[in-house]
Amino acid sequence: xxxxxxxxxxxxxxxxxxxxxxxxxxxxxxxxxxxxxxxxxxxxxxxxxxxxxxxxxxxxxxxxxxxxxxxxxxxxxxxxxxxxxxxxxxxxxxxxxxxxxxxxxxxxxxxxxxxxxxxxxxxxxxxxxxxxxxxxxxxxxxxxxxxxxxxxxxxxxxxxxxxxxxxxxxxxxxxxxxxxxxxxxxxxxxxxxxxxxxxxxxxxxxxxxxxxxxxxxxxxxxxxxxxxxxxxxxxxxxxxxxxxxxxxxxxxxxxxxxxxxxxxxxxxxxxxxxxxxxxxxxxxxxxxxxxxxxxxxxxxxxxxxxxxxxxxxxxxxxxxxxxxxxxxxxxxxxxxxxxxxxxxxxxxxxxxxxxxxxxxxxxxxxxxxxxxxxxxxxxxxxxxxxxxxxxxxxxxxxxxxxxxxxxxxxxxxxxxxxxxxxxxxxxxxxxxxxxxxxxxxxxxxxxxx
Length: 449
Fold this sequence. Notes:
The chain has 449 residues and is mainly beta. It folds into four domains: 1-40; 50-74 and 244-355, no CATH class; 85-235, no CATH class; 371-448, Immunoglobulin-like (Sandwich). It is 11% helix and 40% strand. The strands form seven sheets. Strands 6, 7, 8, 9, 10, 11, 12 and 13 form an eight-stranded antiparallel beta sheet that branches. It has a five-stranded antiparallel beta sheet with strand order 1-23-22-21-18. A four-stranded antiparallel beta sheet has the order 3-2-16-17, with no helix packed on it. It is elongated, with a radius of gyration of 31 Å. It starts with a helix and ends with a strand. Residues 1-44 and 362-368 have low confidence and may be disordered.
């Protein structure tokens, strides 16, 4: 009897110990899992060469309520309500560009039943059959008011006067503005030398007529000067022209329909600043950095919304796999860009960016094919050889991708021509090796493992 009781006690004790150990193991596992996931979130992503991405998160708000002016160097530069403007004027003095806020639902129609002499009798009979005017999908300066242009001297809303250089309005418009109300509008003229627009607008019945003199001179350091017809006021919405690279907003772009035909459709995405070049690569591996194999295109909709698609099975947006962009910013530095997620419920998105080329390093560089570095990748040493004949001593400088000089060494011309062995002690990653030989500068990538 005692033996049986002792045996039962031992079995019970083993079970208690076993359960206690299981509990401890599960606690350890859960703690380890939490730490792993936390580190995954806070640790910057790296590419195959060991370079780190910087992640930026933006929240436009429900219904994409806010526009974001974004800089690769500085992140979010300025945030503005998307619906606080109706029309915007391109600021150079000798430009006729005027766009509308299509992302806020603004629609523009050329009045088909008369010229400017019909101002007092404008009506909206047959409005639903009138063709709406659209901003250009790829050129900022060509706004909806310029849609009917036939070429110089006709710029859509106006005719160019070759004597005074002024722009004279020759059309009337009906415009549905951001608050849903409908107005008649006449762009009267632009005094180009002074950079001043004159225009007027009113309710269709002629009530609440407003005559506006809009001086664009205070806004010449910006791309556009904005105006709210709803609030009868001008708006200073933009950062300085050179302070931003992308605008995250809602706007019209050409997208394929179910049959593959291109049609205009409102999208939420990234619009390049004027003069900002970008290139799209697909399909590519995660570590892809060969941005020089494709030209940059300086158009508004290179990036657009092509990086995401709507999954009807989950009712969520997903990222297009194996795709990335390269963007040359306002300082001519080149960044790799890839998008991480997009949530339409609160208008949030995340992107990873990585500097892959510094303008200060790449300027005035001679033939890159003349400079050879091997092995690839290097470790604690590499051999550098210059095909072009040099006789004088040359200077080797190595830069990281933040532009810091991390290594310098003088190399004789003879050694450089025959292949000079260079010992280094650098962290793994991608670098730029620059050789100055006389008046010539040669540059090549250096990968260290």
